[in-house]
Amino acid sequence: MKLIRLLAAVTLGVLAATPALAQSIIDGSKVDEIVTIARGYGSATLESQSDGNPRIAGNIKGVPYYVFFLNCAADTACEDINFYAGFADIKPTMDALNAWNRDKRFGSAYLDADLDAAIEYDVNLEYGVTRENLDAAFGVWSVLLEQYTEYVGYKPAP
């Protein structure tokens, strides 16, 4: 009787895990799928970086951004993606940026080389993530972008 209960518990455990196994896994080699997810949040086009790695140029609610594919090896998946937006001629104080970084869990705010406002958000794809997880990361980026543009006073062109 104990053996039957044990087998029933194992069977239920396997069945409960089956939907997770059926989920679509996306890593840095599935660039087209990542672009498709980006398009769910606004416009997005695939470009190339100067080193040949892919880059997405996107726009969410009038705010331009990039997704850089990083740590790429020839003929393999890129390990990371980096969401980035920079805002020329918007120069928040270091106190304001420190407050943002202290109070926000996601997104790193800083001054770029021209002392303009910038924000980044990194996602590790080295062993793949579910499509739902990556879609959620784009959702986080969308919220960060909206909050940060308001925080630094960026007004998208109408």
What keyword list fits this structure?
158 residues; 6-stranded antiparallel sheet; 39% helix; 4 helices; two-stranded antiparallel sheet; alpha+beta
Topology:
Layout: H1 2-22, E1 25-26, H2 31-39, E2 43-48, E3 54-60, E4 63-70, E5 80-87, H3 94-103, E6 108-111, E7 117-124, E8 129-130, H4 131-152
Antiparallel strand pairs: 1-8, 2-3, 3-4, 4-5, 5-7, 6-7
Q: What is the count of helical runs? A: 4
Uncertain runs: 6-18
Instruction: Give the helix proportion (percent range).
Output: 25-40%
Terminal-residue CA separation: 71 Å
Mean pLDDT level: 89
Q: H/E series, N to C?
A: HEHEEEEHEEEH
Query: Sheet bearing the most strands, described?
Result: 6 strands, antiparallel
Number of strands: 8
Secondary-structure-based class equals alpha+beta
As a whole number of angstroms, the C-alpha radius of gyration is 20 Å
The backbone outline, from C-alpha atoms, is: globular
Name the strands of the widest sheet in spatial order.
Answer: 2-3-4-5-7-6
Oligomeric state: single chain
Percentage of residues in DSSP E strands: 25-35%
Structure description:
This protein is an alpha+beta fold and 158 residues long. 39% of the residues lie in helices and 28% in strands. It contains four helices and eight strands; from the N terminus they run H-E-H-E-E-E-E-H-E-E-E-H. The strands form two sheets. A six-stranded antiparallel beta sheet has the order 2-3-4-5-7-6. The protein has a two-stranded antiparallel ribbon with strand order 1-8. Strand 3 and strand 4 form a beta hairpin. 22% of the residues are buried. About 8% of the residues have low confidence.
